[in-house]
Design brief:
11 helices; 9 strands; binds S-adenosylmethionine; about 260 residues; globular; alpha/beta
């Protein structure tokens, strides 16, 4: 039996994710559905409240542990040095900030910035050496201009209501010459692989998510939001418009995940 799994959005619909569309319609995407622009942040927060205690376990099960390798590769693009100040926006339970802290050392700084208290609490429990947690909204980072040598954002920008505002904030608090990386899910290149990935995403993921976190819905909106998100070429244009230079795209695992890196 061949199932029709083609749920990947076309360019027009993918760009509905962008600020212009959000501010004109006063609606924002939550998975395949729309919600009020002002409500998205609360829905995202409720989503992470539901899954926070099982978030790390779910990542490891659903990606068969590959997410650790992806995060390592993303942090490598930042070219962090000892004593550097590094920020991880939408940093959740601190995996990427932990990797950065292992390079910045005692004289450096590695900060997780996340809006969800429960995700932060889970991260704090991991006692990651050299990592500091700050709670706040990625759309208004609570740091002065030009504060950090490097900034990462991993699997976070999809959740931010005004995508460009999130990147503008990253640009603002990054030092001139500083490096940025954005790790995000995307569309696999190979058609057969994509079909199998779709099958896995829409049939298996919600089942496992339901069993482990008790919320099948949380893992239904997740694959949907990936299919509605701008593709790498589209995202790099947005970064370019904001002012990032030397933008590079690195596809991982046939394009399931993509790293955009750049410099201020
Ligand atoms: C999918 S998790 C990624 C966590 C971590 N970066 C990782 O890769 O494991 C997304 C995180 O973004 C956070 N988040 C969502 N919207 C946010 C916002 N507007 N400001 C700050 N954090 C936000 C969530 O609370 C959640 O911890």
């Amino acid at each position: 039996m061949i199932l029709n799994m083609n749920k990947w959005y076309n360019r027009k619909k993918r760009l509905e994710q962008l600020e212009k569309h959000v501010s004109v319609t006063r609606t924002a995407r939550f998975g395949f559905n729309f919600c009020a622009e002002s409500d998205k942040i609360h829905r995202v927060n409720r989503h992470f409240d539901t899954i926070a205690t099982r978030y790390d376990l779910m990542n490891t099960i659903l990606s068969a542990g590959i997410h650790y390798a992806w995060k390592r590769k993303a942090i490598e693009t930042l070219m962090i040095k000892p004593k550097h100040r590094v920020l991880d926006v939408c940093g959740g339970t601190g995996d990427m900030a932990g990797l950065s802290a292992s390079i910045t050392g005692e004289k450096g700084l590695s900060v997780v910035y996340d809006i969800n208290r429960k995700m932060i609490r889970q991260g704090e429990k991991k006692s990651l050496k050299g990592v500091t947690f700050v709670q706040g909204d990625a759309e208004c980072l609570s740091f002065p201009d030009d504060s950090f040598d490097s900034i990462s954002i991993g699997f976070g920008i999809r959740n931010v209501t005004h995508l460009e505002t999130g990147f503008k904030e990253i640009f603002r608090v990054l030092k001139k010459g500083g490096t940025m990386c954005c790790l995000e899910f995307s569309k696999p290149d190979n058609t057969i692989f994509r079909y199998l990935y779709d099958l896995y995403s829409f049939k298996v993921m919600p089942l496992i998510g339901g069993l482990i976190t008790g919320s099948k819905e949380a893992y239904t909106a997740f694959p949907e939001s990936i299919r509605a998100f701008p593709l790498p070429g589209e995202l790099s244009l947005i970064l370019q418009k904001i002012g990032f230079k030397e933008i590079k795209i690195k596809k991982l695992t046939n394009g399931i995940a993509v790293i955009h890196s750049g410099r201020k």
